[in-house]
Specification:
CATH topology of the largest domain: DHBP synthase
Structural class: alpha/beta
Radius of gyration: 24 Å
Number of strands: 21
Number of helices: 21
Strand content: 15-25%
Largest sheet: 9 strands, mixed
Length: 610
């Protein structure tokens, strides 16, 4: 009897933003990573050569072992949309068209040939549609046997939003909204107007929203977007420039709201905060209405979410609390990076018609710890070559020591296990601190992350203790749900009522002020002992010491750089910031004992702040 040879499928996304690769073996997710982590170029959109190399290495195979390659969208269909769009507005948009055309003619239009050449792959290459890939990434790894599916982003080929249904191994998109009408592009238009970078600054806009008032909601709904009861919508394109121009909004948009777009890095004012709050509320309204329509259309109360808008964790939280949906599962890599995973799973389940079942409890995402890990031998080699001083600890010693350091208000870089796939750090590549500290948010923002002071930090909490601190329905393993802090954990002061704008940041709002946003909410990660045992042990040790099962968790990177990938990345980030300690596997590094610490910071800090 001969053993059946496994089937390997490589999924790819590239050439827009957040390129990524994913490898599955007989339907099991083996590896997935964004290209940016290896190239150190944030949101890298290049063909993911390094991510592919990692995936093959993780599986212990070579290119000849691959059975299929799947790319996350159809390039010819996307090019059709671009051509029709430019022709519709001609001669306007000629500069944008001329800028886009060369890369299409050189690479994107002939993507099959390009992939074959780059990979030296002679097997079958499959191209699902963009929103099919999103839908597959949401449903197939979920715990549900059947579920409604909602995908929302900027735009794929033509589709910007879709509602679908998944049952066993079947997946069908039932209705869609097409370009140029897009909730993702509407949100990005306000991101641009408020001075943040499109396709990377949307989460900043979401974080800014609670500082403002929803004073422009009526204007948005009257002038910019017509929202129907089922969540479908149509934009008034006379206010937008993204169809033909190199900006998102136009002069008519500026006149409607009374100001020109904010310049990058210029001062934020109350107008920008009110704009952020207003578009956030409109977006949430659409998300809830679409979720309700998906329930009515499918008759199902399980919902799977993907697409860039599914990273709007405030809206996700409201869907869970206020819509007809009883259970929600969100793809951790909800943006284009996750399209690589969806593309691979589409081949396994739809193209090859393999069986699928769900137990309604456990997902197949493996905590989204799907990136590279580094052995103790690899770490030791790096440390010995650099002659770095460290303390070696076992897991029990390490968790107790880190808990002690957190209790003393130290900031710690935590590097252990496999790197996370998706934009959230979940305890493998994280910077952690004491959530009880009144000064920790400002220290981390300005001295560690080198970023805007208004940005909130997220809590990691022991899964079984989450209800003690947060009004959270269920669990939130991927930090994609926002919930309010429990009333009994809040601190009432007169300043809460009188403070305006960024002054709200200075007010202590709860017993865990470092992670309590100005609207008394938090973006929560619930930590399970089975998924990340060392991270769980650290938080549990902190809980035993302090009776607080909550710590700060932010991504291990500084502004403008991707999350760290290698031990070298982690050490450099540690040295050029005001972090106090670094944990790499079971080695503990103390900043004050490191050689050349002042010179290291002097040499690198200027490039960080550029």
């Amino acid at each position: 009897m001969t053993n059946k040879k496994p089937i390997y499928i490589l999924g790819l996304s590239a050439f827009y933003h957040d390129s990524a690769a994913c490898l599955i073996k007989d339907g099991e997710i083996i590896a997935a990573a964004q290209e940016e982590r290896f190239t150190r170029k944030k949101h890298d959109d290049a063909f993911p050569k390094k991510a592919i190399d990692y995936c093959l290495k993780e599986a212990g195979i070579v290119m000849d072992d691959l059975n299929y390659v799947s790319f996350y969208e159809k390039p010819f269909l996307k090019f059709e949309r671009l051509l029709i769009n430019y022709l519709s507005f001609a001669p306007f948009g000629i500069l944008s068209f001329l800028k886009a055309l060369p890369i299409w003619l050189k690479t994107k239009l002939f993507l099959k040939d390009y992939i074959q050449k780059e990979l030296r792959f002679s097997g079958e290459i499959i191209f699902p549609e963009h929103h099919e890939s999103h839908a597959a990434s949401a449903f197939y790894p979920s715990p549900f046997k059947e579920a409604a599916i909602l995908t929302m982003d900027g735009v794929g080929e033509w589709t910007t939003t879709s509602i679908g249904v998944g049952r066993a191994n079947e997946l069908e998109l039932l209705c869609e909204t097409k370009f140029p009408h897009s909730i993702g592009l509407l949100y990005s238009a306000f991101t641009y107007y408020c001075g943040f970078r499109v396709n990377s600054g949307e989460y900043k806009l979401m974080g800014l929203a609670p500082y403002g008032e929803p004073k422009y909601v009526d204007i948005i709904k009257k002038e910019l977007i017509d929202i129907k009861a089922d969540g479908s919508f149509k934009l008034n394109m006379s206010y937008f420039n993204y169809c033909v121009g190199l900006t998102m909004t136009n002069r008519k948009f500026d006149e409607l709201f009374g100001e020109k777009p904010r310049g990058p890095e210029t001062k934020l004012n109350q107008h920008h905060m009110d704009m952020a709050r207003s578009i956030q509320e409109v977006t949430e309204e659409i998300m809830i209405k679409m979720a309700n329509h998906a329930c009515e259309l499918t008759g199902l109360t399980n919902l799977c979410l993907a697409g860039g808008v599914a990273l709007n964790c405030v809206g996700n939280g409201r869907i869970l609390r206020e819509s007809k949906m009883e259970n929600v599962w969100i793809q951790p890599a909800a943006g284009d990076a996750g399209g690589a995973l969806g593309a691979a799973l589409m081949v396994w389940y739809r193209y090859l018609e393999n069986d699928r079942d769900g137990d309604e409890v456990n997902d197949r995402q493996k905590g989204t710890y799907l990136g590279p890990c580094y052995s103790q031998t690899e770490v030791q080699k790096f440390v010995d070559e650099k002659k770095l001083p460290y303390e070696k600890l076992n897991d029990e010693q390490l968790s107790e020591k880190v808990a002690e350091l957190l209790d003393s208000e130290n900031v710690i870089g935590l590097f252990q296990g496999r790197m996370e796939f998706g934009p959230r750090a979940l305890g493998a590549r994280s910077i952690i601190g004491d959530a009880r500290s009144t000064k920790m948010q400002e220290i981390m923002n300005l001295k560690i992350k080198f970023r805007e002071s208004f940005r909130p930090f997220a809590p990691s909490v022991l899964k079984e203790r989450a209800g003690d601190f947060f009004k959270l329905k269920g669990e939130s393993p991927y930090m994609l749900l926002v919930a309010d802090v429990n009333d009994e954990k809040l601190i009432e002061t007169e300043d809460k009522q009188s403070a305006e704008g960024l002054d709200k940041l200075k007010i202590k709002r709860s017993v865990i002020p470092a992670i309590t946003h100005v609207d008394n909410s938090a973006r929560i990660q619930t930590v399970d002992e089975k998924t990340n045992p060392l991270y769980y042990k650290i938080i549990h040790a902190f809980y035993q010491k302090t009776q607080c099962p909550v710590i700060i968790n932010t991504s291990f990177n500084i502004r403008g750089e991707p999350i760290v990938c290698t031990p070298e990345d982690a050490y450099r980030c540690f040295m050029v910031t005001n972090m106090d300690y670094l944990v790499v596997n079971n080695l503990l590094f103390e900043k004050q004992k490191q050689p050349n610490k002042d010179q290291f910071r002097k040499d690198d800090i200027s490039t960080i702040l550029d």
